[in-house]
């Protein structure tokens, strides 16, 4: 297992398991199997709607003696409807209750989009809609939300806080006013979206980077948000490099992510792929192979609220230029 080391000596294990889109009924088993396979980093979010089931998987793995709570790194995320400072702590406490934990290792602001508050007893998680109606953005300064996040660290509800789905300009602004600086940025990164400038800036600022959707289109094909022709894992460059190493294209994509200094969080609900996605430490890509994969960059973003918000909810949520 690899890890990103923070200045305080804590370590973020790599790779992690992404839990987005794992069906509720499979989640406890997949989380348990992932821990059994060696994963120690679980990436969760209220919006995924399965945190209670992730919690069951964690509990069963601990009960089976596969790990202790201290062995695990568990990340949660603040959803858009809880950006107003008075709702931040309650949202974090709900995540903790669902996961069956007393403290998170990391809590992120999921998107730089504030939506109107939806009470837990009305709809949880509310997603981008409250019922059938798309919700309108509300005006909440990101700095106000960040200060409420800092209070979660003060209260011991999370060890670290961070950001997600923002670019260099916004990250620079957060760093300018943060009392507790973001420990990590989570963004979409894969060979079709390399994010070179953003990654370099984070490394210069000692902000860790988690790469979600490390396989590109594969996460979005079932949602109708990508086409077969956009599949990264069928790219001839990756296929050739995978063949040279006796590996799969998925393993090559994950190894590329790790050698660039990011922490990939692939999602799978296949026990076979769980093991495959974790088996990354017996081979190394050459500098030429890293460069060839990086040259595939198309600046292709699959997870863009400006696109899917309008298509799915008739609401325009632009956050990227």
Describe the structure.
This protein has 321 residues and is of the alpha/beta class. It has a single domain, classed as NADP-dependent oxidoreductase domain (TIM Barrel, Alpha-Beta Barrel). Helix content is 37%, strand content 15%. It is built from 11 helices and 12 strands. An 8-stranded parallel β-sheet has the order 3-4-5-6-9-10-11-12. Strands 1-2 form a two-stranded antiparallel sheet. A two-stranded antiparallel sheet has the order 7-8. Strand 4, helix 2 and strand 5 (73-78) form a beta-alpha-beta unit. Helix 1 (27-37) packs across helix 2 (51-63), helix 1 runs parallel beside helix 9 (271-278) and helix 7 crosses helix 8 (249-259). It is globular, with a radius of gyration of 19 Å. The chain starts with a strand and ends in an 8-residue tail after the last helix.
Q: Please indicate the percent range of residues in DSSP E strands (runs of 2 or more).
A: 5-15%
Radius of gyration: 19 Å
Number of strands: 12
| Second CATH tier, the architecture | Alpha-Beta Barrel
Number of helices: 11
Give the overall average pLDDT. 96
Head-to-tail CA distance between termini: 36 Å
The CATH superfamily is known as NADP-dependent oxidoreductase domain
Shape: globular
The level 1 CATH classification is Alpha Beta
State the helicity in percent bands: 25-40%
Give the strand order, joined by hyphens, for the main sheet.
3-4-5-6-9-10-11-12
Give me the secondary-structure category. Answer: alpha/beta
């Amino acid at each position: 297992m690899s890890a990103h080391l923070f200045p305080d000596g804590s370590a973020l294990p790599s790779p992690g398991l992404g839990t987005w889109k794992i069906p509720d009924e499979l989640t406890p088993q997949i989380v348990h199997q992932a821990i059994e396979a060696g994963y120690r980093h679980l990436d969760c979010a209220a919006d995924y709607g399965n945190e209670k089931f992730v919690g069951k998987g964690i509990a069963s793995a601990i009960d089976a003696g596969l790990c202790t709570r201290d062995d695990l790194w568990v990340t949660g995320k603040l959803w858009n409807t809880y950006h107003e400072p008075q709702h931040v702590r309650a949202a974090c406490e709900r995540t903790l209750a669902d996961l069956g934990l007393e403290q998170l290792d990391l809590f992120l602001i999921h998107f730089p989009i504030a939506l109107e508050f939806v009470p837990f007893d009305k709809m949880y998680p509310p997603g981008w809609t409250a019922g059938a109606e798309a919700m309108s953005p509300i005006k909440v300064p990101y700095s106000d939300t960040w200060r409420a996040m800092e209070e979660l660290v003060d209260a011991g509800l999370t060890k670290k806080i961070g950001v997600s789905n923002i670019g260099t300009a916004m990250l620079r602004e957060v760093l300018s006013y943060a009392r507790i600086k973001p420990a990590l940025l989570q963004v979409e990164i894969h060979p079709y979206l390399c994010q070179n400038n953003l990654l370099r800036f984070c490394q210069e600022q000692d902000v860790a980077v988690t790469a979600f959707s490390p396989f590109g289109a594969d996460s979005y094909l079932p949602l109708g948000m990508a086409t077969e022709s956009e599949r990264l894992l069928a790219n001839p460059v990756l296929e050739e490099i995978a063949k040279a190493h006796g590996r799969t294209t998925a393993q090559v994509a994950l190894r590329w992510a790790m050698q660039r200094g990011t922490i990939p969080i692939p999602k799978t609900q296949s026990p076979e792929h769980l093991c495959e996605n974790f088996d990354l430490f017996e081979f190394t890509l050459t500098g030429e192979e890293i460069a060839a994969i990086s040259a595939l960059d198309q600046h292709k973003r699959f997870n863009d609220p400006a696109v899917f918000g309008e298509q799915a909810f008739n609401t325009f949520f632009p956050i990227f230029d």
